[in-house]
Design brief:
Number of domains: 1
Shape: globular
Order of helices and strands: HEEHEHEHEEEEEH
Number of helices: 5
Oligomer: single chain
Length: 336
């Protein structure tokens, strides 16, 4: 039964133990991962994968008929024991890949499969300890290795599969660390910007002025823009996180950036524990001081979920609202 408790507890529950036993090895010489190989994609239109799934109450989607694509970069799943003491996870480790696919690819990536074909690379993700080490030069090298894979995957997607199609960038946590940089270096101000429907940069603080010409979205159907939020328990003020009005925050229940309260009756469905059970009216949302505040939802075994940091559920608390919004932005983009 414990196996089915809130899917994304893999990210934060063991942070303390992870930080106390950091990895030892870093390979600064390795070439980027080869994304011509289908095995190096966690989700891809040419393979059957867990990003194709939809919760049981919904109708399956034929992605081949969709007019847009989604480039999805998953969060950190390399969180516990290291693989060979490495700071960066190998992309061919079956145990880690299975963990990634059964959690974030299924429970997060699938939220976008009605909007576009899903492309989600495996990448040499940084171990969670890289966020906490005091060795900043080492941390930079570790994240550079991960980012270089993400960039190589996106470039392969553009050169071989895109064919001028509009696309969404979607990410969570470490994925957002890399996608923010990808947008800044590759998309912002380039010809690709005209193809970008929107970017969902979730789980990390993204400044409002992070990009030169790509601004925070201003409405539910705004395009060529980005949305972002980080979720915490209502009434809790987190420590050691970036707060303030300079951070872009969107309320995924109304897609506005003001501090208006949106009640849970506007929540069209969360997926928390059972992928095939949509929990309507799961929780509310309100922006405050650069973060999103939400009431703790009630679900089976919810008493085991005691964290006040709802990072692991940034997407899952608002699964159906995100799903419908991604479709709305695609439709608006295609009309225009």
């Amino acid at each position: 039964m414990m196996k089915s408790i809130i899917y994304s507890a893999f990210i934060l529950v063991l942070l303390a133990s992870c930080a106390s036993v950091p990895p030892e090895n870093i390979d600064r010489q390795s070439a980027t991962t080869d994304y011509k190989l289908l095995d190096n994609w966690a989700a891809h239109p040419d393979k059957k994968d867990l990003a194709d799934l939809v919760p049981a109450p919904l109708t399956s989607v034929d992605q081949s008929m969709l007019e847009a694509d989604v480039f999805f970069v998953h969060p950190t799943t390399y969180t516990t024991k290291t693989i060979g003491g490495a700071w960066n996870a190998p992309v061919n480790n079956q145990e880690l890949n299975g963990k990634t696919e059964k959690t974030t690819i299924q429970y997060q990536g699938s939220a976008f499969n009605q909007a576009g074909r899903i492309f989600a690379p495996r990448y040499r993700q940084a171990h969670i300890s890289a966020y906490f080490t005091e060795d900043k030069e080492l941390s930079k090298d570790v994240f550079d290795i991960a980012y270089n894979d993400v960039k190589a995957a996106f470039e392969q997607y553009i050169s071989k599969y895109n064919n001028g199609r509009p696309f969404i960038i979607a990410s969570h946590s470490q994925g957002t660390t890399h996608c923010g940089r990808l947008i800044k270096e590759v998309i912002d101000g380039s010809s690709l910007q005209k193809q970008m429907i929107a970017a969902y940069l979730v789980g990390m603080p993204v400044p409002k002025d992070a990009f030169n010409s790509i601004k925070p979205c201003s409405s539910s159907d705004d395009t060529g823009c980005f949305v972002s939020w980080r979720t915490y328990k209502k009434g809790y003020t987190p420590e050691d996180v970036v707060l303030g009005d300079a951070i872009a925050v969107h309320n995924p229940l109304n897609w506005k950036t003001d501090n208006s309260y949106v009640s849970k009756d506007q929540n069209k469905g969360a997926i928390i524990r059972n992928f095939d059970k949509l929990i309507t009216e799961a929780t509310d949302a309100q922006i405050s001081n650069g973060i999103l505040m939400a009431a703790k939802p009630k679900f089976a075994l919810s008493f085991l979920f005691t964290s006040k940091n709802y990072h692991v559920a940034d997407i899952n608390f608002y699964y159906m609202n995100i799903r419908e919004n991604a479709v709305e932005r695609v439709e608006t983009f295609m009309k225009n």
